[in-house]
């Protein structure tokens, strides 16, 4: 899984809007503060609006604002909606599974499944509020990864 510029820029915009909760921010202000072109940002914000994360206001004092509270915005959901499945390989995907001719007895599929599950574990437990309040901490590998040792 790779997060594209669209996913990164969407999160930047949501963070900015979340930091100004209840206020309308103009497209140019959002673009300037997130370092995203207004044309690309408009496309992203339109998609976020269709998904129900932001709303817009027309007019001279128009712009965008969050529609949901930051604690209601799950980062895993946003990434899936904008980027697609979290799995690095289609054969390990839950939502977009594609069979592989080498799948039977494949020794790599468990690795790809673990990568998928680890990414999902972190993203699904993270909200916009967590990011706004700097609640993200580094986890040690032992906290997430369980590898069975056989005797």
From TrEMBL:
Name of the protein described by the UniProt record: Rrf2 family transcriptional regulator
Keywords: DNA-binding
Entry GO MF terms: DNA binding; DNA-binding transcription factor activity
Lineage of producing organism: Bacteria, Bacillati, Bacillota, Bacilli, Bacillales
Record flagged with keyword Cell wall biogenesis/degradation: no
PANTHER family, alphabetized: HTH-TYPE TRANSCRIPTIONAL REGULATOR ISCR (PTHR33221:SF5), WINGED HELIX-TURN-HELIX TRANSCRIPTIONAL REGULATOR, RRF2 FAMILY (PTHR33221)
Entry's Gene Ontology cellular component terms: cytosol
Keyword Transferase: no
Pfam families: Rrf2
